[in-house]
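dumping these here so i dont lose them again. two proteins, back to back, each one seq then structure tokens. dont judge the mess
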Amino acid sequence: MHRSSASAVPDASAAKAVNPTQAPMPRSVKWLFAIAASMTVSTVYYAQPLLDGMADALHIARSSIGTVVTITQLFYALGLLLIVPLGDLVNRRPLIAGQMAISAVALAITGLAHGRTTLYVGVAVVGLLAVATQSLVAFASALAAPDERGRVVGFVTSGIVIGILLARTFAGLLAQIGDWHLVYLVSAAIMAALALGVWAKLPDAAPEIRHISYGRLIRSMPELFVQEPLFRVRAAFAFFIFAAFSLLWTSLSLPLGEPSLSYSQAAIGAFGLAGAAGAWGAAGAGRLADRGYGRATTGAALVLLLLSWLPIALLGRSVFVLIAGIVLLDLAVQAVHVTNQSLILGLRPEARSRMTAGYMIFYSLGSGAGAFASTRAYAYAGWTGVCWLGGAVSAAALLFWVLSGGGQRQGQGRKSVPEGKPGAKR
């Protein structure tokens, strides 16, 4: 057993040695991964613009209806910890298709809910199984040829961010046609169709490890942080960038809805289109990671992230300047996110699902911290306070990039054969 230590090797070089003859991924398969991941992650965010309608229909106090979002997010975090790592232990194709099929049932139950208990159970299962999104990223990375892994990961993760940003717009439009029930029923039909597509189109994928218990699999996740310095650094970047991302998107509706601006809910939701444009523009970051420019891409994106708060702070003066800032922020966040995943998913092929789960836990922590701080900053110091806090988080991320060496080096951790993997050579 030996993996060469390559402190100065370009980011993608280790991956290229794995299987240089692997065929490129067909375009149709890339689109299936991106669409399935986008629609799956969007199920976590449908409820946010629908809370008023849910409260009225189910006679839930407005002070309590936020519990729907809390339950969804808590069970999503639970799924990251308990379900996503299974991709290293079982065949990913039936695992993902099964999650999506059960999610379709849960979405239908949610859409048919006429009581608080049914609603809560439905969204809990939806949140738990929405982590199929992250299993799709790990699966796409495993199927991609080494020299296209960054591009494929970038394409799929761009779909995810677009799904997050446009979920509210999608839900709002459907709710105007019908009501909140229709949103979940339509999503259930889409999810069922995608589950069939995943089952029919994607190949079987034997797990990289065998003869290891589920408990040992879960306990091995902290060991990956100890063994892989690059993993630790990139997870920290995830915390910073998604804290900044959440600071913007959690509080943006507050100033836009004030009497001085008085944007409608539909108009506020449309700002997600600007964010989606920025996110899609960052898909090429994976290409740069494939070529060994992960550090430079991260540094440039973090500079953009910091600068984006200047036009965002001018919200009251020009909506076009605000949109420009939103595009910059989402471009920067997505560029770092794509680079992060491109690099860490090439580190340990046998642990891609666990690494994805561990990375996304930091994503969730950052998002939660940003959401928690955002509304409090707005209440204390208005939009200016939110922007100062966003700039401070972005500056901290840039400083961390400088001090950490940008997360460039690979292969410096303690190397070990994963338990149960046949053979001792790599």
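---- next one ----
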Amino acid sequence: MATAGVLCFSERPDGRTVVLLGREKETVGWKQGSNKWSSFSGRVEAGEEVAEGAAREFVEESLAVVPLLPSMAVPTGAAEVSSALRKKSRRVELVMQARDPSFPSPIHVSFVYRVPYADYPARFRALRTLIMECDNRFRAYYRTKKAAESLPRLLFPGYKLSPALTVVGGEQRAGGVDLSIWDDAAGDLVTQRVWLPAQAAREAREVYEAWREVLSYIERNKNHHVLLHPAVTVQRVNRHVVGAYVNKCYLEKSEMRWWGTEELERAVRQRPHEFRRFFGEAVPKLLAGVHCAAAAATSTEKETDEEDPAPGSSQGDETSSEAPCGDEEGSWHCCGRAGPPGRPRYRGTLSSQ
């Protein structure tokens, strides 16, 4: 099992190197992570490459507000982030201590990437407020729907009566409900009366009132960027809204902040309880990777300001020419920039993958 993530760094206008971290939301019963700082990372899912898993976790937990390149559109997409990580990033590989000694130690891969400096924390805060409002509106409907124990499922928007017939809404009437059903074959709406007992009719009225609130919110904000964000899904049949929800993976972090490298080292030593345990222990190695990447980026910038080399001159490979970062035990590796397709993507602990 592997986990992966992205550690972004940049340079402030005053020249200080800073890294971007996120704070986990408060979660009752989660002592290891609730309200603690870490990079943007998570488990690599089955079928994903490590870079793909890291990109997906980064996009979700950062609310897609951090472009890795100045030309990258916001909200960022996992595919373009993954592509950028493969082309230009520094990998820091860490071996985590398995809880059960009988299991192999999990591997964590952090992609260290230099990004343009900007006030991403303010953008994150503003966007998260909007998405939370959206989530609260949608969840109010689903709570009402869940509480309606007497109602059959066929009364709810989105229910498929058949491959061609989908319930798109309803109106509570005396003694029952008038269902609005989209007929794909006819390309039109049809209405069907469903008779209900008194208790079910009251619950139907509450459900449809809550659903109209959702529809009203979506209509009022149809041109707002929050409904176009990848965290928000609005399901439609033809032009009719039949479902709306927020992907909870995008709400795992509650705060984002730039940390100076010296400030972070000091905070981890003095206040370790504010950081996720594994991240806090890995900070010295991660920051070593940041310093290596920053030095390589500065060197590259200087080279671009010089004249192009004469034709036929030897340039060498910038990754292989760099001294590898690491400790004497070899438990972690700072593997240089990602190479072209075909070059082994990992060294040391991950060379077999």
